Fold this protein.
Amino acid sequence: MKIGIAGMGAAGLPVAQALDQGGVPGCTLAGFSARNAERALELNGHLSTAVPHYELAEIADHCDLVIEALPPTLFNDLAIPVLQAGKTLVVLSASQLLGRQDLIDLASETGAKIVIPSGAILGLDAIKGVAVGTINSVVIETRKPVAGLIKAPYVAQMDIDLTTLTEPYLILEGSVSEVAQVFPANVNVAVAVSFAGHGPDKTRMEVWADPSLERNKHTVRVTSDSSDFTMSIQNRPSSDNPATGKITALSVIALLRQKTAVLQVGT
């Protein structure tokens, strides 16, 4: 399977290195996209073998599966050509799929696939399982250190002073769809949870500033006709970008390995 990576930052580069080192049996790194030729040359210095650099609009022509690890503003520049080519698009910017039935329809027409890896969240298998029955409620609670929220546009717009916090403070709550409108940079995890189960309009989200935390913490609470469960995860940041969890790249590697594995675990 020929793999392309669009965006070689804290999430994309570790996946590229795993492919380069033969860490994903049955898959090869066929190409990547970077912001310019100079950056591409620099990135190839991290790989044992030079890999072609392609523009976003052309990478799908050379790959079977393309991993999206881009700034949100570039999402369409990649997603549409990949789906038009009938290829598989692995999406890390899950928030960019909200309200994009047009992309799902396009994939259906061309035979393409859109895949959201687990990324920084846990328990998507369990949520997909209970969704086969009846889900009563799903709530995702995201707690972040004050430093991770103090410059958020919504916090400034609402004139919320987080500098003197001594206990957790609820900044915002609502459906995932509602929170995404004012907090787009903080909903990728919640969107993945909502797509797995109750949908973005029914899945509830809470965003907290917590002065006791040093890392982001996500807690998901689910009630259903088959089981009730609560899951919590606190991710360690990647060494290259504290805004990206180390587990994000690892989850993509795990997804690629499962695609070619003889023994597959989980849904």
About this structure: The chain has two domains: 2-119+245-260, 124-234. Residues 246-260 form the longest helix (15 residues).
